[in-house]
UniProtKB/TrEMBL annotation:
It comes from the Eukaryota. This is Inositol phosphorylceramide synthase. It comes from [Candida] jaroonii.
Length: 452
């Protein structure tokens, strides 16, 4: 207990409480974590009615796990023990709140490391000529060879950083950022999208095995077979530069040697970027610059053709948008972190369907729900964003600062200018025209009554 009360523990907790937990509204627990270890809670949840999407989701992932269980070359006792521990982690609420939603990721990893154990006679023929031919047809040349025609130690290190370092650490960093700054349940959506994107990518690589650029540089266009060893490509120069076998052995014995299309390096990078743009749209150019950096490095290191990168990016884009419109909660621009939310809202696809959109009803409802303020609205600019909002300001600041999430409407209206822009405008507004027509109709009705 003395350790928990020490400054080493208390100082970070106080800091975390001040910046994050203090955002939590009273009597709201949607952002709280589950610390129970009672398996009966998880079992009772399984008794609830299942949706068709859930049945398809878990049936597909269960079939992948069953396939891995059968193919993996280990004794029945060892495989059963690993599977039982895995299931226990799902049933314990403390761990299940993370494991159950990371199931697509676990299935992808299990399938990927089992691919090398699939019998060769089960696998289709390896494509050697298709990707370089499509590269030439679509882009006029082999872009990977063009970029790798000049190599230096500086360029090698510059390409190694995103491909060999950042690629493996960025999903964890993005997950942490989503957990802290995204709405509750948004981390579940990231696990769903990231796992399914990689899982579908590995399945595509199994069904359509294709040789990467380094194969053409070593063997030309001669037929490939599954007994061949892989190659680290340009990463071999990093091993020579550092004097450490970091990639040569790993890539030579990779479970998926002929998995050029689609590029999962590109898919993972684009998926990370899409979620970062959803989370912090202000820095979207920074996030996309990372994706471009990784695309260049994959071709410079001769691991992928450009068409592979496009395939991985499209796969990530499709899976992300499916997740966005079916699972991902709506971001509130004036919420600072997950503890700032008092409710979770999802996108209603029916409302976005243009065929179901009633424009006239929307206009009339908008006019009825938003009363026109009697006094001109003072819109705060970026220069005075720290000032309190006026009473008649109908929209919140487009900011994710702690001040924006905790802002309270002040009773005092900001000092108005002597003459507003509306009063000086020479153009008659729509509301002025409506008022004039109403006055004309009223006068006409009075005249009519007098005549009769």
């Amino acid at each position: 207990m003395s350790i928990l009360r020490s400054s080493i523990i208390q100082t970070p907790y106080q800091w975390f409480h001040y910046y994050f937990l203090s955002e939590k509204p009273a009597n709201v627990n949607i952002a709280d974590l589950e610390f129970s270890t009672d398996m009966s809670k998880s079992i009772n949840k399984l008794k609830h009615p299942w949706k068709i999407n859930d049945i398809v989701h878990y049936s597909f992932l269960s079939s992948v796990i069953l396939f891995v269980y059968i193919i993996f070359p280990a004794s029945f006792i060892i495989k059963t023990f690993i599977l039982s521990v895995f299931v226990s982690c799902f049933l314990i609420p403390l761990t299940g709140q993370f494991f159950i939603h990371a199931l697509p990721i676990f299935c992808w990893l299990a399938l990927f490391f089992t691919c090398g154990k699939i019998p060769h006679e089960w696998k289709p023929a390896i494509s050697v000529k298709f990707l370089p031919a499509m590269e030439t047809i679509l882009y006029g040349d082999n872009l990977s060879n063009v970029l790798a025609s000049v190599t230096t130690s500086i360029l090698d290190v510059f390409a190694w950083l995103p491909y060999g370092i950042v690629h493996f650490s960025s999903p964890f960093i993005v997950a942490i950022l989503i957990f802290i700054f995204g709405p509750p349940t948004s981390l579940r959506s990231f696990g769903f999208a990231f796992g399914y994107m990689n899982l579908l990518g590995v399945l595509t690589q199994i069904v359509f095995p294709a040789a990467p650029p380094w194969y053409k540089n070593l063997y030309g266009l001669q037929p490939a077979n599954y007994s061949m060893s892989g190659s680290p490509g340009g990463l071999g120069r990093i091993d020579e530069l550092l004097g450490v076998d970091m990639y040569t052995t790993a890539f030579s014995n990779s479970p998926v040697i002929f998995g050029a299309f689609p590029s999962l390096h590109s898919g993972c990078a684009v998926m990370d970027v899409l979620f970062l743009c959803w989370l912090f749209p202000k820095y979207k150019y920074v996030w996309w610059s990372y994706a471009c950096w990784l695309w260049w490095s994959t071709m410079y290191l001769t691991h992928h053709y450009f068409i592979d990168l496009i395939g991985g990016a499209l796969l990530a884009f499709v899976v992300f948008n499916y997740t966005k419109y079916n699972h991902l909660p709506i971001m509130s621009p004036n919420k600072f972190c997950r503890w700032s939310y008092s409710e979770i809202k999802l996108i209603n696809i029916e409302e976005l369907n243009p065929l179901n959109f009633n424009y006239n009803e929307f206009i009339y409802n908008d006019i009825e729900l938003h009363e026109i303020p009697e006094e001109p609205v003072s819109f705060p600019s970026s220069s005075n964003s720290n000032l309190p909002l006026p009473n008649n300001y109908p929209y919140p600041y487009d900011s994710r600062s702690r001040q924006a999430s905790k802002i309270f409407l002040n009773n005092q209206i900001l000092e108005e200018e002597e003459t507003s822009s509306f009063e000086n405008s020479a153009t008659t507004s729509v509301f002025d025209e409506v008022e004039q027509l109403t006055t004309i109709n009223s006068n006409s009705s009075d005249d009519y009554r007098k005549k009769n």
